[in-house]
Structure formats: C-alpha cells, structure tokens
Amino acid sequence: MVFYLLKRLLATIPVMLVVAVFIFLLLRLTPGDPAAMIAGDYASDAQIAEIREKLGLDEPMLVQFGIWLGNIFQGDLGESFFFKKQVSELIVARIEPTLSLSLVTIILTVSIAVPMGVISAYKQGSWLDRLTMGFSVLGFSIPVFVIGFGLIYVFSLKLAWFPVQGYDRISEGLWGWLRHLILPALALSVIFVAFIARMTRTSVLEVLGEDYIRTARAKGQTETKVLVRHALRNAAVPIVTVIGFAFAILIGGVVVTESVFNIPGLGLLTVDAVLNRDFPTIQAVVLLFSLVYVLINLVIDLSYTVLDPRIRY
Amino acid sequence: MMTKTENVLEVKNLTVSLPGDGDRANAVENISFTVAPGEIVCVVGESGSGKSVTASAVMGLLPAALKPTDGETLLEGENTLTAGKTRLRDLRGTRMAMIFQEPMTALNPVARVGEQIAEMLEIHTSMSASERRKRAIEIMELVHLPEPKKMVDAYPHQLSGGQRQRIMIAIALVLDPALLIADEPTTALDVTTQAQILTLVKEMQERRGTGVLFITHDFGVVAEIADRVVVMQDGRIVEQGPREDVLRNPQEPYTQMLMASVPSMTPPERKPVEGDFAIDVDGLVKRYGHNGLFGRGRVVLAASDVTMHVRKGETLGIVGESGSGKSTVARCIARLIDPTAGSISLHGTEIATLPESKLRPHRRKVQIVFQDPYRSLNPRRTIGLSMIEAPVNFGTTKADAIVRARQLMQLVGLPADALDRFPHQFSGGQRQRICIARALMVDPEVLIADEAVSALDVSVQAQVLELLDDIRQRYNLAMLFITHDLRVAAQICDRLIVMQKGIVVEQGPTRQVYSNPSHSYTRQLLDAAPGTEVEFGSGRAS
Amino acid sequence: MTDVKSLSPGRQTLRRLVLNPSVLIGGTLVAMILALAILAPVLGTRDPNELSTSNRLKPPGYEGTMRVYTDEGRMKVPVWYPLGADTLGRDVYSRIVYGARISLVVGVSVAGISIALGVLFGLIAGYFRYLDGVIMRVMDGLMAIPAILLAIAVVSVFNAGVMSVIIAIVVPEVPRVVRLVRSIVLSIREEPYVEAAITAGTRVPTLLIRHILPNTLAPLIVQGTFIVASAIIVEAILSFLGLGIPADEIPTWGNIMGASREVFQLHPHLILYPGVVLAVTVLAVNMLGDGLRDTLDPRFARRV
Fold first, then answer.
1. Which partners does chain C have (≥3 C-beta pairs < 8 Å)?
2. Class of domain A91-307 as given by CATH
3. Interface predicted TM-score (ipTM) over 0.90
4. Cβ partners under 8 Å of residue B434, min gap 6
5. Cα(A173)–Cα(A180) distance, rounded to whole angstroms?
6. N or C terminus: fewer CB in 10 A for chain C?
7. Which chain B residue shows the shortest CA-CA distance from A210?
8. What is the pTM of this model?
9. Which CATH number is associated with domain C4-51+90-296?
10. Which chains border B (3 or more CB–CB pairs < 8 Å)?
C-alpha cells in the first residue's frame, strides 16, 4: 500500500512537469519579445529592460526554466505586474471565496446528481429517466454565465430573495456567506449535475447488466437490495472517477461564475490577470489549479483500493 | 396435493414468445417435461434451441422482451409463471436455485464469497450473522473447497474458475432447494475442472435428493451425468427419454444426426505421413513481461522450449487447457507475436527473427483460421474484398483473384454470389468456411486452425472438420490444429502434442497418445473427458 | 423489411440515423442556424457594428431615426431595433444574426482541427507502441490543465482574434480525441480480422486506413459533434469575459453579452436574448450528437 502510494505520487511528477513546461513555454514561445509583451504597449525601454532582467530572459531557455521552477519550489511565484504584490500573497487572499464556492457546489451537485443518475438507470425508459436525460442535455447546452444571469434576473432582480452579486466572508456570519453563495453554486452545479447524473446512469446501467445481478435475483433478493448491495457497490468506482474528472469542469466554471457574480476569488483574479497581461499571476494560477486537479484525481485513484478489492497494489 | 408432489418440476405446454421482428415467433413452443426428485434431467440442444430460455422461465428470470404466453411451470405443484413477485422471491433460493455458465462473472466482485453465501441465509432465514458465517463455512466444506475457514473471507478474484463455480453451487444448495437449475455450468471451464464440477453436482444431488435441470450443448456431459435427456431444436422438444434410450438408440433423425456429429474419442487408424518438413520449430520460447524496476515485475513463460515439426500433408494437433501456451505457439509461428528465442524454419527459411519488411513474402505461406467466426471478417467489407486482400497484396490482379475466389467459394460449399455480400448475412459456420477459403487464396504451405471449430455447434463443427480434412489432402497442406477438445483432436490429427503451462509434456501419433499416454497429465486429460463410455460419431465416415 | 439485412452495414446505419428523433430535431435546428448564418445579410439586418450614440440602450421594438453620413452630406434615416440597441446603439438583432457565423465557424474549425490532430497522434500512439509513452505523457499533462483555464492561458499570449480563439480551444480538445482514437486502435488491433490482414501481408499504412480507421469514424463523428457544442460554449465564455474576440470587430454571442454586463440590471434582455439563442444552438448540436451516438456507436458513448 505504501509502495503503491509512493508509486502513484511519483507518477504525478511527469504530468506536473509537462504542465510546468507548457506554462513556461507558453510565454517564451510566443512571437515577439515576452518582456515587451508583459510590459504592455506604453512601456519605456528601461521598463522592458528591467523586466527582461527580472525574468532572466537573456539566459538560455533551459536555465530560465530551471530558475523559474526553482523559485516555484521555494514558494516564490514571482511578483504580479498588475497588482504589484507577491503572487503568493494574492492567491492566499483570494482563496477563501473560491474554496467556499467549490465546496458548496460539490455538496449540492453530488447530493442531487448521484441519486438522480441511479434512479434514472434503475427506471430506465420511465418518465423520470427521460426527465433526467432531458435535463442533462439542457444542462450541457446552457453556458454557465447564461444560467447565472438568468438566476440573478429571477431570484435577485424580480423576487429579491438573494443579493445580486458579491461575497461575504465566512467570518462575517454564516448566513450572509451562504446567501451570497446559493445562486452562484446553483448556476455552477447545473452542468456539473448534468455530467455526473448522466455518467452515473451509464455506470449503473452497465452494472445492472452484469451476471452477478442475475445471481442476486436468483437468490430471491429484493430489488432495492439488489440495487444497493450489488449494483451501487460495483458502480462506485466509475462514479467516483467521473466526479474526479468533473473537477475540471468545476474549475473552469468557477472562473466564469466568479466573474458573473463578482466574487473576488481566484477565478476573478485569473480573468483580471489575463485582461492585464499579468503573466506571473496567470502562470501561478494555472499551475495551482492544475496541481489541485491532479491531486484530487490522485486521491480518487487511491480510493479505488478501498472501493474495489480487486485493485490491490 | 399428493399426486402433484411426485415431480419437483413439471413443465406443461410452455410457450415463450419472441419479440416481433425475430426469425421465429416463439423462443420455446409447447414444451413439456418433468424432473423428479433426485433425478438429473439434461436439456440438450444447439445454440438457439431455446434451452436456456426454458431454464430462465422456470426461475422467473426471463428478460423483459420474452413473455411466456402459454402453459405452466409447476415447481412442486406451484406455477412459477403466475406466482407474484414476492412469492417468486421466496421460492428462489429456498425451493429452486440456479447456477450459471460464467463463474468468473456470476459472483459479485466486490463482496467476499462468504458474504455472498450468507446473503442467501440473510434473505430467507432469521439466522444471526455468526450463525450465517458458520453455515457458510459448513457448506463450503461440503462442496470440497480447501480451507473454508480462510476462504470464506476471500474475494472472487482470488479464486480459480472451478472454485468460483463451487461457491455458486454452495450458494445454490445452502438452503436445500428441491430443484437445482444448472445452465451450462461447465462450458467455460477446462476439461479437468469440468469433470470435478460434474462429480460434485452428482454427489450433491445424490446426497440431498435434489432434482436437477441441467442445460448443456455437450453430449459428452449428457452421457456423463444425465438420468433422462430432453433434446431440443428451434424451441421444440424433438425427443425425450431415459439416457440409455436416447443416447444408444435415438429415434428421431435430428437426434441421430447430432449423435453422429459428436466426434468419437477413439482415433481412427492413420498412416504415418512421410513428406518433407513444412515447418520446423526448435526451442521456441515466448516470455511475457519483464523484470520491473524493483524486481517486482511479473514474468510469464507462455511457451518454453517448444520443439516440433509438421510435415507436408500432415495434421499436427496441439492440445491443452487454457493457459497451456498452445495458442501462443501458433501465434509465434504465424508471426503475429515475436518469439523471445528459438528458431522457426519454414521450408528451410528462418522466420523467427526476420524483421517485418523481410518477413512479408513469407507471410503468404502461413495462413491462420481463428476461433471466433464473428470477428474474423471485417464487418464493413464484402466477402469478396476480404477474399482478394491477400492475393492482391502479393501481386495477383484483381480479376484473377476474383476468379480464384469464386472457385474456392464453390469448394467450401458456398454460392459464388456470396462474394458480394457482407459477413453479417452469414451464419457462424458459413463464416468459418469463408475464412478457410480466404486462407486458401494464397496457396499457403501451412494452415493454422486456432480453435477453429470450438465456437461452432456440433453439427456444423462436423462439417467444418470434414472440410478442413478435405483441403489438407487436396492441397497437401501442413496443418497445425490447436484445440482444447479431445474429441475433435482424436478425429482430425495425425500426431499430437500435449502442452501444459507452456511446456510440451507429450507427443506422438494420435492413436498412441490416446491408447497409451505416457505422461500423467495426458492421462488426467483423457480421464476427464466426459461421456467416454458412450461411443459417438458412428455416422461419421473416416 | 426483408431487404434491410442485405444492405451494407453503412447503409443500415444511415437508415437508423434518419429515423432517430434526436437526429431529426437537432439536425433541423442546426440547419436552420446554419441558414441564419449564411443568409445573415438578407434577413433584414444592418451593419452589426454601426454605432448610433443617439439610440443607445433603446428597448426592443424601438423605431426611430439615425444620423448617417453619405456623399450628399448628413441625413436622417429611419431605423428599427427589433431586439433593441446595445450600449453603443448597435442593433442587437443584427449582431445576434451575424454572431451565428462566428459560433459556427469556431465550432466547426475547432472540431475539424482537433480531430485531424487527434487522429494523427492517436493512430501513432495506438499502433507504434514505442511512441505511445511519450505521446500519452504529453497528453496527460495537457489533460491535467482544466480545459477552460488552458484556453484562457493560451488566449492570453496571443492577440485577441478568431484564430487565437480557435487555437486556444483546440489545444485542450486534442488530448481527448487522441485518447479516444488510441483506445479504439488498441481494441481493434486485437480483432482476428486485423490479424488475418496481417497474415495476408497487408502493409501497415493500408492496414491502418482499411481496417482500423473506419472503426474510428462513427465515434469521431459523435465526438466531433460534441466538440462543436463545447467549442461554441467556450468561445462564448472567452468572448464574454473579454478575452476572446473583441466586440468592436466581430459580433459574437459571447461578446454581445459581455458588452452588456454593466447594464444587466436595467436591460436584462441584452444578455437574455443572445443567451437563449446560444443555448438553443448548443442544445441542437448536443441533441444531434446524442442521436448520432445512439445510432452510430453506443460503445464509445463516454463523454469525458
């Protein structure tokens, strides 16, 4: 088990390395002088030279990469050109809203989507199944910001139940925090629910066609127990896997949702950074999100050993 | 009540309809038979005969598309077709139980086997958890599983196929049902394991007086265990009666034909073949996997030091159970996989180490017919295109190749216009004929038949075997015949190689191997073959 | 009925296809949007970029006048804003109709380019096992960056425009196609009919094209349809955030909405109209994709 853990941890290194190389190259391989690009259209030559110095742009590519990676490992993500602050500080300041939004969304999603998918699979072809499938196509099709504005229009502007935009820190009170999060989380969870419900349905359907389900029925087991004890236990691995994949959708959605609802989190930071060509910030945020995504999927990978006795390492 | 309890199961005029667009209206039609306590009734038939549908109908486990439209299935006098859901659930497990063909998939992979036996007790009794566990261990002991106290906590994947089928039997019998339905329970197992499971079923049935409804396609198995036999064809019962009557003196032409098609276990007299070596294999080794970084990698010797030769006009059989390496050898010779070591000499040319570019001209000389006729032809291409692919690759013109294809179609007994059709329009047997014709398109010197008749029904199998034997003579082919089926091997092979775990344990003329096996494993195999005391294949001219 | 069986597998599929309701409805809608995009100039539209300071934020159905400068000098012409005017007085109706062009161009180009690249790398990785490791590690790396984030990162280094948006959306899609193609190649190369072709002396390029590639066709058509849908959404997201195609150059559904974010509370229709059109388009493409998947190839129905 420990050996496996180690092996899996080691396996994430090449993946993260590819990510790092990509993020690093992105800026260096673009046409034109990266320093001039960072500095913007109105920068003086001196400013450009300063940036050039700072990034070590005159060194060979490999050395630049080494410096960059070395700094990251020391926790030095560089200084934001736009905010004139250490990027690490920026991230720390912005992390709470993003974490809050993600957490509420995941809880909302999983508690809706998984039962929806299971019931839909079990009652395949029923109106409930069709409703789920219909909702899922719809959920895939409406962009999160359209849903967001739709929700604001109905619940904030017309009904005035929730605040239009913004975010309250959790330290300022739970209710205010939650009130600000409900609409964005709802908007964000639509596509997430669509995805997970559909994949859950597929997995459960697949399992329901297995021979051991027939065995359980031949034993005289009740349908509910066939579903829970045999089908769900076996569908757990694919369902959990899908939830892991869905985090990519979630992270993408966070960026958009935070913009729509004006929540000062990492997503909004990303958009601001891109609009202002603040490359150190962009690089750091992309790296951070990717790392989180990879780690989440690592944890999910490890959970297989618990969920499925066949997977032993 | 008194008269009705005589039989455990009475199937009366059962009809199960098929959904609208099938090629026949009913899966089974108006069938009647009985199973008495302590009796093993074998329902035997080829694929599509409706034998499995009958079993599912009794258990109330028919797929939703199939509906019983007439008749009744009386389990100890109670009709299971009309029983309510709850009643049916009560009956399953307690009065009737079922075991299935695939022990590998019939058990829940994420639940411990003890738990799966105990589940039966949990559903139908009020035993406590510890009592259930105790009972599970007892029944595991009863079906001769080793160390049941340990194995009770094992997961299915940690058990062999035979052990899993024993677990299935344990689950089925733990509540002492009156009727056990076994749906091809040994078809997926190796012959030695099959023999053990058949013995176990018989032992359980004798000890407990269970009535057994045994579904099979294998007459060997029927001969081995049946008390009475029901022969089915296309959803109807053709003939039924006590085993001796049906097997030794079949009345209906269909039964007679089936019996005649089952290859005999007695090899016919064959003249030794004296031709040149077409293929000469020396010290062939195939190793899979490699030592891992930490020395934890798994290395499997799929074939180890295999030495053999096939003469022109000769059929060499390689027999063995799954994992014996017989297919690995065939695939090395066809160079579908690269051998790790050793030499393969094809008419004097060494091909074991040739790189693909130099190998190409030699590919023509070795052709292969695979096991699964449904996957051997590209479904998107017409038969004609599949047939001419090889000759066109080797420089024949399209027109010439098509002329040749027409001739070969005739040879394998198919109309010439078959060339314009697609694979899905042919039956399994027809497709296998097409594959044989395709192999002949490039005048090969060696023909490898890799379990080429194993997926076919027995009547079709007999015809394809005859075809293979015929073309071997006609073209003076060296044939390498890979099979797990000792009956088939007995009838078609001049010489035999017996393999076990990648090693050749015995070789010699077929007749000699069968009458006087020198290796204990060969003896074990021959003893395990079911139904040897009944002589089949009387109708086959050989 | 009896002659269905004698049809080639391809024709049988085609037959099932035209009988599928999802394909029919989705396909019809897609065709309508396509017509909208092509016929944009003759659908009563005006220049979608024409500004009119006097007509800013006029409500839907507003009829008024607009100053134009011609050779004869300044004159007033009557204008009608069926769906209102945006913050710069541009006709929302015209902008939405013309916006269909960008969505479709981006959707189709992204699907085409990602599939072409994906098939190339997928075939290589699936058939030439020694290159598999390298290709798949790079793909794993790209897959580790959430798609929208990756697109944003790519777009940030280019000058905003249609090309850079297309590239930005292609990059995260390619690894998904590579995985799909590779998995199909891996399963099909084990098929006996492929092995039969090998013993028939068929050369590798022919083998790939004749026996393996056709099996990827159905899943790729399905996958391609879903890529079109997701590319349309991602383009809208990028343009909405102001990172994609600039609103003053080419109108897209995303930047129409993006340009009206500040005034959403008072003029919600500026976001809701293009939003609905966008959603209906994506829905149509998705329905088409679902229908194609159900009829063409249910085995590769995974949507990851």
1. A, B
2. mainly alpha
3. no
4. B377, B383, B386, B387, B409, B412, B414, B418, B423, B426
5. 11
6. N
7. B105
8. 0.85
9. 1.10.3720.10
10. A, C
